[in-house]
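pipeline/complex-builder :: batch 7 item 3
reading input block
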Amino acid sequence: MIYELSYFALAIFLAFVGVTLGISFYFGSKAKSSQGYFAAHGQIPWFVNGIAFAGDYLSAASFLGICGMIAFYGYDGFLYSIGYLAGWIVALFVIAEPMKRLGKYTFADALDAKFQSPGIKLVAGISTLAVSLFYLIPQMVGAGVLIQPLLGLPYWSGVVLVGVTVILIVVTAGMVSTTYVQFLKGSLLVFFSLVLTAMILARGFTVKSGGQDGHEFLTLGPVENLEDSTLSALPELVDYQPLATTDDWHEKPYLRLIKPETAEVLTLRIDPHADGGYVLRESQTLTKTADGKTLVNGRIKGTKKGEPELHPVGYVSRLPNDAKETGPLSVVSFFSTLQASEVTLWSKEVVSLADGGSTTVYYPKPTAGAQILRPGEHPRFKGIRSDKAIDRLNFISLMLALFCGTASLPHILIRYYTVKDEASARKSTIVGIASIGLFYVLTLYMGLGAMTSGALDVTDSNMAAPLLAQSMSEWLFAVISAIAFTTVLGTVSGLILASAGAVTHDLITSYMKFDFNDTEKVRIAKISSVVVGAIAIVLGILFEKMNVSYLVGWAFSVAASANLPALVMLLFWKGTTRYGIIASVAVGMISSLGWILLSEDTYANVYGLPATDAIVPFSQPGIVTIPLGFLVLFVVSKMTAKR
Amino acid sequence: MHDRNARIGAVLCLIYSAVYSGFVLLNVFKSDIMETTPLPGINLAILYGFGLIVLAFLLALLYGVLCRNDVKPNTSRSQDRTEGQS
């Protein structure tokens, strides 16, 4: 799709960023000590901290990634919502109070409270850095994705813009400002998600055959055969001539025709019809030629509205009782209506061209509502309907990592130090669970609303939520995009602060034993922030095409494998030794990272190698590496216990 | 006091883990059940999913209530401080 600058959206966006920076500068002038910089002097009220938890946690992955995945595949994205929220149960019931009781600035503080071991500080500090960087990548990808429709700027400039803004925020302020930015963002995100959901329900469903740009996709047939004489008899194809089928297209189920006067190529997907014959469905093609040109349906992709571009998609193609529209729906009838309807989803396949270029075909796939609302349609969740034990293990592994990962995320853990006692830590977590839970319930409405909005960009699932808002109104789009962008800003600030804390306290002060005064510590933290921010910008640009929710899944796996076994065993097993903790964090981190780097998803999506070459049997490491962390801790502690 | 809070937390965590595991295992081994519609037009996948989110909130509230009763004598001082600050 072509995105153009909206000055209204830009104004709202700049206002949001301006307020965010204003808060940062205001509170920044007050945070001079390292206690203030890293832990807000432990004086944040628990309610504010609870909503700030929501701000920290509801990252680009939750808002953009989950909504996008639901919009393109249905229920499956909601599995992430369920897993992300379930993780908070571990955070509240197991981690919250001990973290507050044992630590001061960083996750390593709590882990090391009993032993005072530089080794623990070292591995916990490195683990914090690794998890934070993994978590930073999807946030940066989210920023780049958002900036395209909002400001009409290229992807990389969004990544750079958010990187630089966040570095400014973190360097000028610290935990107090980050907390209030998160509080503001968390409140706005939940509130406007409620507004969006109310608008989705009020709009109801309408039967369409195309997206909101007015283009109606052709559905022809059923025809008995695919011979020229049959096709030329179809009135819709009277202006088209058959296109010679080259080798690349030979075995693909498409008919290709060309309109001579415009050179527009019409690609029709050939679907067998249940009663015999074929149905032909208009598809869309995006071609990257060998000489670097981009073609949309055979013509050079435009740069302005009205020029060739991919049409927006996402519509209900049949309603119960063949109704044309439903009118307003309730929170229950929204699902029951969809359950009995049919929605046209879009899939894609890539055709390699002989000259080295490639064409991606996006084709419509009418899908029963009952199928959309059941788990297991997304390739990542194929384990749900697979007979293979490996696929099932992969699914269980992901759900385990989500459950265990939340309570091990460094930027969440450091928020326990910003309140003043254990009771406040507990209360703020309960407020966090309430607001985050409400938001995750809304993701299913927003995702399915986007799926049927006629506004989806078929090339980019991450844009579903902002485009849904745009289909409602321009101001809502501006506000939602600005909030989403602030979401990224807030989460990235928290992650960079957690990393800076790990570098300053765990690595430089505790492990390397440099003796710095308070002002110097804050200065080192700020320098670390700039470095981590710069690395995040580069990684964000490199990982442009990955679904942000999926990338976050990786961060959860590493966090759960490296940090959780040590935290839980320290709290519940008296036999834990310092060497057990060091070994557990190191093995958990290295094994989960190694597993991810050798998995088929990384082979296919990052290295561009065949997925079948991958070394590990399934992609999600949690089910192996989390128990491994516990086992290593137990064995090493037994071996090194004082007799 | 810490021990009692930790025990309550561990029990509630186990309860939630069991319900969550039930959801994951049903999906893997009896995925057809998720398609059934216990309420007219609403399938089990949606009911169970929403149920997990609501249960998390209810257990969190229960934990908050139980722990507050437990630590009251010790936290009255800190609560006063909170009110003074906010």
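note: Residues 69-86 of chain B have pLDDT under 50 and may be disordered.
queue -> next item
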